Amino acid sequence: MASPPAARSGPSPLVPLGYLTCAAVAFVTAAMGIGWLAPDLAGHYYHPRLLALTHTVTLGWITLAIMGASYQLIPIVLERPVWSERLARWQLGILVVAVAGMVAHFYFGTWPGLAAAAGLLTVGVGLHLLNVGQSLRGFTRWTFTARMVMLGYSGLALTTLFGLALATNRVFPFLPGELFPTLHAHVHLALLGWITPMIFGVAARVYPMFLLGPVPGRWSCRLQLWGLVLGVPSVLLGLIGAPAFLVPGALAVATAAGSHAWWVLEVARGRRRPALDWGLRFTLTATVFILPAAILGLSLAADLLSGPRVALAYAVLVIGGWVSLTIVGMMLKIVPFLVWYRAFSPRAGRERVPTLADLSWPWVEGTAYALLTGGVGLLGAAALLGDVAAIHAGAAVLALGALAFALVLIRILGHLSPRFQKTPAALVV
Amino acid sequence: MTVSREQVTEALREVFDPELGLSVVDLGLIYGVEIDADRVRVEMTLTTQGCPLHDSMTEWVRQAVGKVPGVVDVAVALTFEPPWTPDRMGQGVQP
After folding, report:
1. Partner-chain contact A337 B89, CB within 8 Å
2. Contact at CB, B52 and A349, closer than 8 angstroms
3. Residue B40: beta bridge partners?
4. Domains in chain B: how many in total?
5. Is the CB of A72 inside 8 Å of chain B's CB atoms?
6. Is B89 inside any structural domain?
7. Are B46 and B84 in contact (CB under 8 A)?
8. Is residue B93 in some structural domain?
9. Is residue B39 part of a domain?
10. Low-confidence ranges of chain A (pLDDT < 50)
11. How far is B5 from chain A (nearest CA, A)?
12. Residue B70 vs residues A139, A232, A265, A391, B24: alpha-carbon distances, Å
């Protein structure tokens, strides 16, 4: 018999759970804030309060969720142990203070405080990169996932430094060029340089694992990788000062996104998993949002469409639709596992313990699915129209969906307490 | 007491992947079972290398097989060669 390779278990489940819980709080806060800021959302997107909302989503929700998931997934997808759990805990504290500071200072328009919070954020991100870098020291298996994760972390470092420069520029102006192109470049560096490669890379490992599906041809992964490697710098160049690069760059990114969507479809079509749970339904539905988002993005790049209304609708579809619904779906997979692993794994084999399905709450998860997917669609249309009442309606649906999602998480996390560990109906021996 | 392959397989059917809700047998994770009187060796894999259930799953298999009447010693060997693919589902315990 072959001897087992040194597969390593992850850090304490409480580390990623801490990040994911903070991320969920930011998600609910942002979902509530949309209704509050509906009149602002009907106007131009460049408004301090909308920047506060944007950073609640991009930093508080998306970035903390990806970082938390990475502490759980690095040992699985890259087969490396996390270098320092203690550093991961410190880093979370720093990031929570930094994000809260940035959001507050954006909201009230206090720029020196914003620059200080952005500096603290840079420290937190730097510690995360240090932890990941040390975890991957000597790493040699450069799979598609590993390359994408590296691309994503490079994008995170550049986005953070870019953001710090923008925040400092508020106090001591030094950046050349116009404000909006620079701002658009920062947004697209975050979206296409940090978030997108992380989702593409992790999906390549975990979607087939969760769906029990085939791994489609390598050409799709090559298109995703090269589409981003060539497309993202071109888009940034095009936005900052060389407009000729914008459309080719956008086409390359759209090709990468389209290839990813095709890849997910192939995995889903060939799946052997008997039934789709709500987490997987969220994730697959999220992928559908890539199509309208790519059409709007290409139209904006080619100047076929323009203006703040289209830009806002594009942002809702990409960040609220594809990215957020993907994260919600993955959290509905990861959080129950972490809780189960912490609460029940030590007892499995010795006594009867619940399966992960016993920790779920299907009808509330289904309600969250209907409300969040419907709410994003409604909000996207309302943002396009610029109608305050419609934005209020979309925001209300979205907020209810976020609350339903939070209820599911609270119930799952409750299993960490022995008080809630009731005898389950279905059991793992 | 003679330990049969069927008894061991039935015991393994009680070990579930908690995420997928399928037994290690139905998932095709068991690559081989060798029985030598009261000693059993199980060769198995996991759905992915670096699986966080790495230690737990092998322990559950050891305990489940250890409950079969007549079994005195259980050895569980983990291998990732060949790597598991979904095509192995439903193939039961490999000969």
Report:
1. no
2. no
3. B35, B74
4. 1
5. yes
6. no
7. yes
8. no
9. yes
10. 1-8, 424-427, 429
11. 18
12. 46, 64, 49, 69, 22
